[in-house]
Design a protein that fits this description.
Blueprint (H helix, E strand, L loop, with lengths): L9 H9 L6 H14 L1 H13 L3 H7 L4 H21 L1
Helix pairs in contact: 2-3, 2-5, 3-5, 4-5
């Protein structure tokens, strides 16, 4: 894997890390409830990853699943939520 030769200051790194899309918490909660009604496991993955802050590996361990399965579920759940939140 090639190493990126560009240096990033700690201040700039903090700016990059803190940039997030604004999230309507109420809309997210409602969308997460709809996801849970359709697929409770994907909703649980979102809760553990987004709200608890677990890594893929930690989430897999908590759900007694493989990291590959959690990664697929996380990807699918994020796509589903994004669609729900942008069309609502």
């Amino acid at each position: 894997m090639p190493v990126d030769a560009r240096a990033l200051s700690l201040g700039a790194a903090g700016d990059v890390a803190s940039v997030e899309d604004a999230v309507d918490v109420v809309a997210l909660d409602e969308a997460l409830d709809r996801l849970a009604a359709q697929d409770g496991r994907k909703a649980r993955v979102v809760e553990l990853r987004y709200f608890v802050g677990l890594s893929i590996e930690e989430t897999a361990q908590a759900l007694e699943s493989s990291p590959a399965t959690v990664k697929r579920e996380w990807t699918a759940a994020r796509a589903w939520l994004r669609r729900e939140l942008t069309t609502a």
